[in-house]
Write a structure and sequence with these properties.
This protein is of the alpha/beta class. It contains 6 helices and 8 strands; from the N terminus they run βαααβββββαββαα. The chain is globular, with a radius of gyration of 17 Å.
Length: 188
């Protein structure tokens, strides 16, 4: 059976493939060892979605497990507003939207449409500012870009050398646990 890619790892892979390894090593550990304030805020803000108490509207679907056989993806969506055909990915704070976050939203979109749901609009919702940030549906060129990214992910060799990027390393939640860098992290 083919291994499915967790949608949540798409952004991590672009950030640093080694962070996925570290996440899996420390997944059973005390999160306070590596989660910084932004991750803790995100977990707290996400509680309503994860516990399916965010909305009582019957047309709002929260925390739905999704998959795509075509792309070999598996994960969960935050919120699908069925009446509006709107898929929303909630984030506590978005100072900047990274390509990996776009890929995660597209992945959720591809999963939902493959599963038979109608999605016509995509958006991020920034909880800290109560702001919706619309994202265009992927074009044919962007779909091809996404497919190439998925191939790169699937063909990645974990034995390949890690490129240490000090500006990324200092923002990595696994920085203090990483054996690839000596860069101090910004979280203290």
């Amino acid at each position: 059976m083919e291994n499915y890619i967790a949608i949540s790892t798409l952004n991590d892979f672009i950030f640093c493939p080694y962070s996925i390894y570290l996440h899996n090593v420390y997944i059973e550990s005390d999160e306070s060892m590596y989660h910084a304030t932004p991750q803790m805020q995100g977990k707290i803000a996400h509680k309503g979605i994860d516990q399916k108490t965010y909305s009582s509207k019957k047309d709002d679907i929260t925390s739905l497990p999704v998959f795509s056989e075509k792309y070999g993806l598996i994960g969960k969506i935050d919120l699908l507003k069925q009446k509006e055909h709107l898929l929303i990915e909630r984030k506590y704070q978005l100072k900047r939207i990274f390509q990996g976050q776009i890929y995660q939203l597209w992945a959720q979109y591809f999963c939902l449409t493959e599963m038979g749901y109608e999605v016509q609009k995509l958006s991020f919702y920034e909880i800290s500012t109560n702001k919706m940030i619309p994202v265009e549906l992927p074009t044919e060129t962007q779909i091809e870009e996404f497919e190439n990214f998925i191939k790169t992910f699937k063909n990645y060799d974990p034995a390949s050398p890690i490129t240490v990027n000090p500006s990324k390393c200092k923002h990595c939640i696994y920085n203090n646990l990483c054996d690839k860098t000596e860069v101090p992290n910004v979280y203290g």
